[in-house]
Amino acid sequence: MADIDNGKNNAYEGTRIIVNTEDLMFLEVLAPDSLGYFGLDWVKNRYDRFRDGNLYLIVDKRELPVNVKVLYTDTDGEFFGYYQSGDTIKYSELLLEYPELVDQITALEPVSEIYDALLSISEGQELSKYNLRNIDDLVNDFKFNKRSPRASSVMLSFDDVDDILEIFDVEDEDKWFVRVVTSYDGYEFEYWDNVHDDWLQGYGLDHFSGVENETRIDNILKVILPGHSINTNDDKERQLICNTLETFFPSEIEEVLDTYIHEQNYCKTRGALKEIESDVSNLFEPYNIFKVGEGYNYVTSVKTLLSLYENVGSKKYTLKELLAEINKDTEVGGWAEYTYETDCLDFDQVTMDRTVSRALDSMEEGLEDSDKFEDIEEFKKMADFILSKYDLNRNYETPKDSNIRFTIHELDPSDNSVLVTVRNLEKRTSEKRRLDLEGFNNLLTQQELFQ
Questions:
Q1: 443 assigned to some structural domain
Q2: Residue 153 and residue 299: Cα distance in Å, rounded?
């Protein structure tokens, strides 16, 4: 680099000297020719990049060769600082290194309205919460502390979780999931094809749990599937019961499953949202910005906010931009994984029970009013009498003749009949017969009629 005293006139040609002391010089560059004299060929060669903004130099004459810093503000007011080598230097570092030039350096940095307002408050000027709200919409409330203005409290409020997450660098799939769970419909954790398939496999009988519901289902099964009970752990039997119930009562089963899907999705959406809110609610706490109450409200002080502006080395930000800047390296997310597994938070069992009860009412009324059955009450009595003594599809000896044996296959409510297979071991014969209750009693007491 050429010594600053050599070719002095040429060095300053194309500049405007703003400050010139024994130790320091602060000048504005108006043309590129002088840059080479300060060892700034990299700036001169890229001058087109700096032409539209404002370019300044700090020349530190306390060192030989002189130490030069480059300060540049673009057309948007964005500030950039560089060492003589081209490496970047922070705004805050320049202020610390050159306290004599604080006024000149700070004049280059754009200042946001909210920073200006907070600074005025810290110096004792009393502003109302309405003043601050009009300046920055993140401000919800403000309480001025006359004794200690810097301790005045500021409440910041976000609209929702999505509003908070705008501050952070969140993966697109996590943003998508948050938008879905915070939407009106929520996320479809459970869907019809899956839940209906589970029902057909026999896994849906738990929807009818509870003593009263189980008793009512068993009474219905006495008519449509005699000899079976909801209180079974046999997978094939549970599958048979579910399929039979849907065959007789498709609309009622659909209503029960639809309600289950809706309530599951609703409670899992609440569970996912609670996890997300838990993850983000205290992210500002390390900066002395604390969550208060329900919703998305945070409280801090004027002093804290001003110190954050100082820490990031810029006064240009709105409050939301300030929070984004201090959290630019904060990692949050991973919520898209909740689509695979999410806890159900406070399942609405009351609504589910109400739907099940209404469905059972409809089933019972359907049986009573159906023209498919000869006499429901008589059939129930017949079923109770027979099934209290005999199981379906099991071989029995008649009470008076061990050679005459029978198997009950089904009880038919359409004509109140019993389908049985009667075997004569002595004659080696076997035949199926459909009997009414009287005929079934005759099989037990008058075997000669079946020989």
A1: yes
A2: 7
pLDDT of the residue at 7: 44
Long-range pairs for 214-221: beta carbons < 8 A, 24 or more residues apart = 216/360, 216/364, 217/245, 217/360, 219/364, 219/380, 220/245, 220/360, 220/363, 220/364, 220/367
Residue 355 and residue 380 in contact, taking contact as beta carbons nearer than 8 Å: no
425-428 own/partner pairs: CB under 8 Å, 24+ apart = 427/451
> For the chain (length 451 residues), average pLDDT per consecutive 10?
47 84 91 83 87 89 85 84 90 88 84 91 92 94 94 94 87 89 85 92 88 90 85 89 88 95 91 86 90 90 94 88 91 86 84 93 84 77 84 86 88 86 89 90 74 54
Neighbours of 213 (CB within 10 A): 18
Report the C-alpha gap between 385 and 390 in whole angstroms.
9
Predicted pLDDT at 64: 76
By C-alpha distance, which of 188, 190, 105, 120 is closest to 152?
A: 120
Overall number of domains in the chain: 2
Report d(CA 187, CA 359) in Å as an integer. 26
Q: How far apart are the first and last CA of the chain?
A: 127
CB atoms within 10 A of CB 231: 10
CB within 8 A of 250, min separation 6: which ones? none
Is 315 contained in some domain?
A: no
Give the position of tokens 């406070």.
346
**Structural domain includes residue 330:** no
DSSP states along 314-354: -S---HHHHHHHHTTT-----GGGGGT-----S--HHHHHH
Instruction: Please report, as a single letter, which amino acid is at residue 256.
Output: V
Q: Whole domain around residue 390: which residue ranges?
A: 379-450
Structure tokens at 255: 């209503």
Q: What ranges in 136-249 are assigned the alpha helix state H?
A: 161-165, 172-181, 192-200, 211-224, 235-248
Of the three residues 108, 130, 161, the one that is the final residue of a domain is 108
How far is the C-alpha of 436 from the C-alpha of 17, rounded, in Å?
118
Q: Which residues contact 13 (CB under 8 A, 6 or more apart)?
A: 31, 33, 34
Q: Is the CA virtual torsion 233, 236, 239, 244 positive or negative?
A: negative
Buried b / exposed e across 29-41, counting CB within 10 Å, b at 16+? beebebbbbbbbe
Task: Give whole-number Cα distances, 168 to 258, 285, 315, in Å.
Answer: 37, 15, 20
Q: Are 376 and 367 in contact (CB under 8 A)?
A: yes
**Residue 291, H or E segment:** strand 290-292
- Helical spans, DSSP H, in 63-156: 91-97, 102-108, 113-122, 129-135
